[in-house]
Amino acid sequence: MKKNMVIGVSLSAVAVVIFGGWLIWQYLFPTPIAQWVFYGEKPSEVRGYSYPPAKDSATGRVENRPETPEGDGALLTQWVDAKQCSLTVKSGKEKIIITRFNESNQPSVQVRYVDAHNSASELNVQINQGVSFWTYPDEKNPAEYIGWKFDNLSGKPIPIRYRGKELLEGTTYKRLANGKWSYKRFHHGELVETKELEQLPVISSEHQEHEQELTRKANQWLSHKLQRLSESLSVPIPDQWLSIDSDPCQSVNAEI
User: Fold this and answer.
1) Do 78 and 100 meet the contact criterion of CB atoms below 8 Å apart?
2) What are the distances in angstroms from CA 133 to CA 21, 71, 117, 170, 244?
3) In three state form, how does the secondary structure of 76-117 look?
4) What is the pTM for the complete model shown?
5) 11, 104, 108, 212: which has the highest count of C-beta atoms within 10 A?
6) What gap in Å lies between CA 19 and CA 17, rounded to an integer?
7) Longest dimension (CA), the chain
8) How remote is the C-alpha of 41 from its chain's centroid?
9) Which has the closest alpha carbon to 111: 228, 226, 11?
10) Rounded distance, CA 27 to CA 29, Å?
11) What is the CA radius of gyration of the chain?
């Protein structure tokens, strides 16, 4: 009986030592949560990893080793567990942020581009389906934004127009307390149609050709922005973010 007790105590002590050693190892050598590569002028290329915030961190921010360089350049980050990667490119007052979510059943891409005049463009694409949302400044009316938004009732992307946060052209959907959906359609800034829907219509493929054409235009727009930034910075920038056959996220593991 005493022998069994001694063995039990010994095993418990070993477990405590192993667990304590694991905690010390995690503190000294934490597992990275992301891998990144930065292309800029000085230095021209830096590769590193991101780690969880230290327990005694005052900011709670992710820790980069080495520190990511500041200034103009392209930063590509591949997150280990989240199945996503992001690209941030800065050139003077211009900035573009691209995030790709590589979920197996529904990969998607979100883009935010800010030009030298601080005007923003937004793009959201479901790679297997098409453009969900795309707005950009109206060249003829600087205070307004135009673009496309997928409309459930129409079953395809429809033209939209905003002035600030005010919807001038397009539709809105809002879930009501009774479980139904409120549908509103605006034209020239005025509400012209409203009704309640029992449920949102299921997305169909009836307008697939129109959606593919809009996706091609969005891809051309994005590729043009990235190519121009690549040339102005003289750094490699991965492209084809909206292609199902391409994964720019893998560029973080090798030379672009």
Assistant:
1) no
2) 50, 30, 22, 12, 18
3) EEEECCCCEEEEEEEECCEEEEEEEECCCCCCEEEEEEECCC
4) 0.82
5) 108
6) 6
7) 90
8) 25
9) 226
10) 6
11) 25
Q: Tokens for 171, please give them.
A: 């539709």
Structure tokens at 105: 């059943």
Give the span between the Cα atoms of 171 and 23, in whole angstroms.
Answer: 54
Q: How far out from the chain centre does Cα 220 lie?
A: 18
Tell which phi-psi region holds residue 84, choosing left (phi > 0), alpha (psi between -120 and 50) or beta: beta
For 119, residues 6+ apart whose C-beta sits below 8 A from its C-beta are 137, 142
Q: Please state, in angstroms and rounded to a whole number, the distance separating the CA atoms of residues 108 and 9.
A: 54
CB 180 within 8 A of CB 196: yes
Q: 246 to each of 34, 105, 234, 240, 250, how far by Cα in Å?
A: 20, 16, 23, 6, 9
Distance, CA of 26 to CA of 198 (rounded, Å): 52
pLDDT tens sequence for the chain (256 residues)? 555 555 555 545 444 444 443 334 344 556 888 899 999 977 688 999 989 876 655 555 778 788 888 889 999 999 887 788 999 999 999 999 999 998 767 889 999 999 999 999 999 999 888 999 999 999 999 899 999 999 999 889 999 999 999 999 999 999 999 999 999 999 999 999 999 999 988 766 566 777 889 999 999 999 999 999 999 999 999 999 998 888 888 777 654 4
